[in-house]
Amino acid sequence: MQSPRSRFELNRRQLGGLAGAMGVYLAMPGFVGSSLAQEAMDSAKIIKGKASGLIVHNEKLGVMETPLTLLRQHKHTPKEILFNRLHFPHEGEAAWYATTDAPDKPDWTITIDGLVARPRQVKLADLAAMEQVKRVSVIQCAGNGRSYYAAKEKVAGGQWKNGGMGNVEWEGVALRPFLEAQKLEVADTALWLTAGGWDQPATPEGSDFAKSYPIGAKALDNAILALKMNGEPIPAVHGGPVRLIIPGYYGNMNVKMLTTLLFEAAQSPSAYQSVGYRMPLTPVEPGQFGANDYTIYNSEPTYAHKIKSVIFSPLAEDNPKAGNVEITGVAFNDGEGPITRVEVSTDGGKSWVDATIETAESPWAWHHWSAKGKLASGTNMLMSRATDSLGRTQPLDGLVWWNPRGYLWNGADRVEITV
Ligand SMILES: Nc1nc2c(c(=O)[nH]1)N[C@H]1C(S)=C(S)[C@@H](COP(=O)(O)O)O[C@H]1N2
Ligand SMILES: [Mo]
Questions:
Q1: In angstroms, rounded to a whole number, what is the distance separating the alpha carbons of residues 212 and 276?
Q2: What angle do CA 107, 255, 11 make, to 5 degrees?
Q3: What is the position in ligand 1's atom list of the atom closest to the CA of 84?
Q4: I want to staple 209 with a disulfide (CB 3.0 to 4.6 A). Which of 66, 169, 197, 408 is the partner?
């Protein structure tokens, strides 16, 4: 089988040269010494169409999160403020996707290959002509909340707070019926479906961005080949013209700029599947960074969202007064059952009240909730904890899931407010 990526080889070499010459990037946390650096950190200047004021974690890769004061203003998170995560510098040949504009790529094709008798290529226009379905779904980086692990032992990587997530309406072609209609004649030996993106590593030794799913995974029943985000063609930076969306799965599983779908006997050797974005199978003591070497045998991919709730208001920056207060926020999980309970505390977990939960737009969308509470003069610790119909709940202390890469934070949320 000829590699569907070979046509990108040259670009890759060129990119490698460019990236090498770039040197160390400036976007170190807290690096705001000069006005020049401040200007360089403006999210609006890193990716065209992004609002100013997003929290930049990596300038060169355009990694940024949404402050909750912006996130809480919208039912569906707009492209201007949605968090962004990319793994390769968007320079040279790759500059086209550093924008919230829709890509101008009418000739885009997706190659379907691997252990199939009839490999084929599908054109963007073919997909656009098929029946389209909607999926409102939370998209969230597996590293969202990583900074909170620092309470025990700081973990390297973007120090995400709670804003590495958004609630987005996706629209596209349902994956399973689409694949069946292709009459591919998939071999019995094919156990994995691997999705690959257009973007390429900066150096030839780097790994492509590819993600694998067991072919029988239930979540694939809801997956779509998405062409639209919030009612418009998907912005280039969010994965247009075609993105694989698997509702209820962590961000890394939702491959942007989809170019390949491969049926394979094993999961992809891509570093982003076989080494990165994985959780140790046996718990690791906080601080034991070398305790797991992340093989496919001692770790598992970060697939389904763990149940989570996030307090949207009040936040410390709202400067609330002492007295009665309405506490609001969102909660979500992997869509396997609705959120049935959100408990809220204003005294650091000594006492709890039940929040009122609104019906969510879809199984994978976030549920809004609100509760009445009281703020005392002095320091208040607000907390929220969600439970779903399957009895799954958030640990009161999220540090129980400490892991060397800082993934899957889902501890009960805490907001400290001094009145
Ligand atoms: N092709 C491609 N797809 C990708 C990535 C990438 O670097 N390249 N990053 C993944 C990760 S880790 C996350 S969290 C989400 C981020 O999606 P967003 O930037 O649209 O919010 O995209 C995922 N899909
Ligand atoms: Mo991510």
A1: 12
A2: 55
A3: 19
A4: 197
Strands 224-229 and 243-245: antiparallel
- The span from the CA of 218 to the CA of 335, in Å, is 11
Measured in Å, residue 255 CA sits from the centre of ligand 1 at 6
- 3-state secondary structure string across 154-223: CCCCCCCCCCCEEEEEEEEEEHHHHHHHCCCCECCCCCEEEEEECCCCCCCCCCCCEEEEECCCHHHHHC
Bridge partners (DSSP) listed for residue 264:
192
Q: How far is the CA of 119 from the centre of ligand 2 (A)?
A: 30
Q: φ, ψ for residue 258 (rounded to 5)?
A: -60, 125
Find all residues with CB under 8 Å of 228, minimum gap 6, and list them: 132, 170, 171, 172, 234
CA distance 179 to 193: 11
Q: Does residue 82 line the site of ligand 1, with CB under 6 A?
A: yes
Residues 168 and 76 sit within 8 Å (Cβ to Cβ): yes
- What are the tokens at 210? 């590819």
Verify cis geometry, omega within 30 degrees of 0, for the bond prior to 269: no
Q: Kindly list the distances between the CA atom of residue 140 and the CA atoms of 110, 144, 163, in Å, as whole numbers in the listed order.
A: 25, 7, 9
Distance CA 143, CA 415 (A): 19
The residue whose two tokens read 């996706």 is: 170
What SS3 state is found at 141? Answer: coil
Query: Ligand 1 within 6 A of 238 CB?
Result: yes
Q: Considering only CA atoms, which of 335, 336, 303 is closest in space to residue 192?
A: 303
Per-residue pLDDT of the chain (419 residues; tens, 9 = 90+): 333 333 333 333 222 222 322 222 333 333 333 344 444 489 999 999 999 999 999 999 999 999 999 999 999 999 999 999 999 999 999 999 999 999 999 999 999 999 999 999 999 999 999 999 999 999 999 999 999 999 999 999 999 999 999 999 999 999 999 999 999 999 999 999 999 999 999 888 899 999 999 999 999 999 999 999 999 999 999 999 999 999 999 999 999 999 999 999 999 999 999 999 999 999 999 999 999 999 999 999 999 999 999 999 999 999 999 999 999 999 999 999 999 999 999 999 999 999 999 999 999 999 999 999 999 999 999 999 999 999 999 999 999 999 999 999 999 999 999 99
Instruction: Give the ligand whose atoms come closest to the C-alpha of residue 272.
Output: 1
Q: Whose CA is nearest to atom 7 of ligand 1?
A: 86
